[in-house]
Queue: 2 jobs
Job 1
Amino acid sequence: MSDASAATAVLKVDAMTKRFGGLTAVRELSMDVPPGALYGLIGPNGAGKTTIFNLLTGVYTPTEGSIHFKGTDVAGRKPYEITKLGVARTFQNIRLFGDMTVLENVMTAHHIRSRQVLLDAVVGTPRHRHEERETRDRAMELLKIFDLDGVANEGATSLPYGNQRRLEIARALATEPSLLLLDEPAAGMNPQESIDLMKLIGWLRDEFKLTILLVEHNMKVVMGICERIQVIDYGKCIALGTPDEIQKNPAVIEAYLGGA
Ligand SMILES: Nc1ncnc2c1ncn2[C@@H]1O[C@H](COP(=O)(O)OP(=O)(O)OP(=O)(O)O)[C@@H](O)[C@H]1O
Ligand SMILES: [Mg+2]
């Protein structure tokens, strides 16, 4: 790759376009996300933010353009391959495994990293038992961080909404990502929960050495923790800069307040 920034960026997207029939949901979008960044992706409803996450995680293949994660072209790869490379996400509409406990939800995600051989699991060899114990311990550590260890054995979807959102983040972390994509993690949370989550996201970034892409409508959260913000409108980037720059940007103000 000739572009020097491709070597340093964790995520580098070049002129990515996604069309659904006649609708262009994402239009020639480029992104350059440095390691350790807390990078906000904002824009009005229907701007294309979730579609961008779906492209980055292999749910969709770009119609045009490229996506490089740590220098590897991942456009069009299968979601599990991209997860294995170190990209994890949460969903705008929570997608926990409803028939599993809180703990099982996190343990299942961790299995993508385990070296288990099917035969070990079926026969129940010592190696398998040892790995299960490690997976369980690791999952409990993650639950502790989110203050969910006390409800480890409860049904995941029986938790209050805010806790389900936090459990989704714990589950994403169980896959040991280096890039974490959060799609509206504060949606449905009360103001205090949102503030606590904002602090937690900053702490997680440092503690787990993560790069974080954050899609969020709560501007207090976005402006409070992101160092760099990219604004999307009708699938196109209309602004990129610091929170200060974004709040003063006329095109951004127009996209949010004007157009009616
Ligand atoms: N699978 C699909 N088929 C057809 N159109 C789609 C598909 N997925 C998304 N779209 C369309 O692409 C556009 C962008 O949708 P997307 O969900 O990415 O927006 P968003 O920015 O996440 O919005 P919100 O803030 O409401 O979550 C919308 O017009 C949407 O209807
Ligand atoms: Mg969305």
Job 2
Amino acid sequence: MFSLYIGNKNYSSWSLRPWLLLTELDIDFEEKLIPFDDGNSWEKFRKFSPTGLVPCLFDGDIQVWESLAIVEYLAEQYSAVWPEDKTARAWARSATAEMHAGFSAIRNQCPMSVGLRIKLHEVSAPLQQDLTRLDELWQQGLDRFGGPFLGGPTFTAVDAFFAPVAYRLQTYALPHAPRAQAYAHHLLSTQGMRAWTDAALKETFREPSHEEEFAQLGVIQKDLRESV
Ligand SMILES: N[C@@H](CCC(=O)N[C@@H](CS)C(=O)NCC(=O)O)C(=O)O
């Protein structure tokens, strides 16, 4: 059986990706949630991950780190990881790689918090550019492959990679096109995302550095997490 090491569900966007893929594809795995240590997790995480980062997957004694490598490792055993159609598969791999390496303004200026609702002080020009590209990319996938997922009728790795963005659009009420909104809503309503959301909202752990960052980014309007 697989073991997947992840961080706190409220914060850890990279952990969400392979966790959601395994969950939505109904692949059996053991979840190993190791809480962050407020910027000092490196030594603790190095015990199971060579980069000191989560996620990290074990398949027996085979260790796979980096979310994209985990997805490709799983794809060797489960064809449902990528869309069946060759064109959709090529598009999904490209969009997934773009998410993994790009969208840095969304990732850095809107860190993931499942439970907070924040009104940003400003939507910077780089953030607006990422949002414009996101609308374009999502619309393209949905139009070309017929939805309701980005690569066609089934949930695949490309949806898992954009799942944290669905949380970010919700948390920061980021401006986006109606089509993108409908897709984000659809993602948030999958059984896997509902399970992740429920668990994240139950977490009583708070990482001070993350919490401080949220408070600096804008006005916190709601905190839906269980109180500490
Ligand atoms: N490129 C890596 C990114 C992994 C990453 O940055 N993980 C964050 C959590 S979302 C982490 O482990 N941070 C350590 C910490 O905050 O102490 C991947 O794709 O897996």
